Amino acid sequence: MKPHVRRKWEEHFAQANKAHDGHLTLEEAKAGYPTIARHFHSIDVDGKGFVTVDDVRAWHALRRATAHLHQTSDDGLRPRNAFQRTYPDEPPKPQNTSTTTQVSARP
User: Is-above-0.90 flag for pTM?
Assistant: First the structure.
């Protein structure tokens, strides 16, 4: 029995590209690569009617970059850093509230 191997998106692209010309049209994407078909107009930013491997690669990079922008540090569902001692339900505690005191030398 062969183990299940997840194919890379490049392999999906090559299999869906029936004309083997490096251009994936919307019809080819609908037939063989539904993810590209759903986002076809976002990937085809030039409006040329087809997408290439470079277009899909740029779209993936843009999605990764924008995903990091939408993550906020105050999201209660995200894991806290190990040094963070506050919980989402508690108000934040002031940090380092100690005042400096002068130590006088004794004669």
Answer: no
| 3-state helix, strand and coil shares in percent for the chain, rounded to the nearest 5 | 40, 5, 60
At 38-81, the pLDDT tens digits run 999 999 999 999 999 999 999 999 988 887 776 555 556 666 66
Using DSSP, state whether 16 is helix, strand or coil.
helix
Could you say which architecture CATH assigns to the domain 9-68? Orthogonal Bundle (1.10)
Local structure of residue 6 (DSSP, 8 states): P
Rg, C-alpha atoms of the chain: 26
Domain residue limits, the chain: 9-68
For 17-43, the DSSP string reads -TT-SS-EEHHHHHHH-HHHHHTHHHH
**Spatial distance between the Cα atoms of 8 and 78, rounded to a whole number of angstroms:** 28
